[in-house]
Amino acid sequence: MSKTIVIQSNNANKKAGKNPKQGKTLKIETFIISYPKSGRTWLRSILGKYLQLKYQLPEQVMLKTEQATHLSNLPIASFEHDGSAMLEKKTSQELNYSRQKYAESNVILLGRNLKDTLVSAYFQATKRINVFDGSLSEFIRTDQFGIEKLLAFYDVWNQNKTIPKQFSFVSYENLHQDPINATRKILAFMGEKNIDEAALQSTIDYCAFDNMQKLEKQNAFGSNIMKAGDSADPESFKVRKGKVGGYTEYLSEEDEAYIDQKIQNAGFSFDLFNELET
Asked: What are the domain boundaries of the chain?
């Protein structure tokens, strides 16, 4: 089953799909799928800012990927957590179902170091959306939020990666290390044929973590997606640290050993997925 949305064709400030009585019903052709706290908001910002700059779109569509791609005359793209959102509180077993609904679509899977993902998810769960009350050690051991659910998410996608028309993987770490080249590849996958290098460079400069955190503190985006839970608490920011390997500041040796054992038992490695290439 393919997914469609309603685009407001005459008012870019309205959210896509808000009023089904107006606008165009369009099929989403590219899904960018990720487990929570794998860098989705950062990538959404990068793609939206690039499209805004190149195609001179209203600033309000920067975080509205469906609208931004539509207004840029690109195949419609959408970000999804594919059932793994923490607000849904699904267990690892509840993620184990066929992804046949993506058979007519293209899929990019965005992944991140599992320990960094879990630490960032913990702060999201406790300081932003309030779905968990406990320690980080307890969090990583729960079936609704912990390492077993995270591993189940990637295992299901490893099993179903041949279902979409096109499938590729992008790591947060690669996006962090070489944002220009990684973004160029993602845009090409999405159907952007002629990359505007000046707009791309301006985008990466704008989306640098220090600048994004400053803008979030000022509530410059006017969106709950990019609004600090508590402007006085850096751990409550959506753009919290964006640090590769930052988990070492939060996980105990025992917690790291627990996660490592679960990963070993599952036989998991991101090498199971092919990194996006030109």
From this structure: 4-272
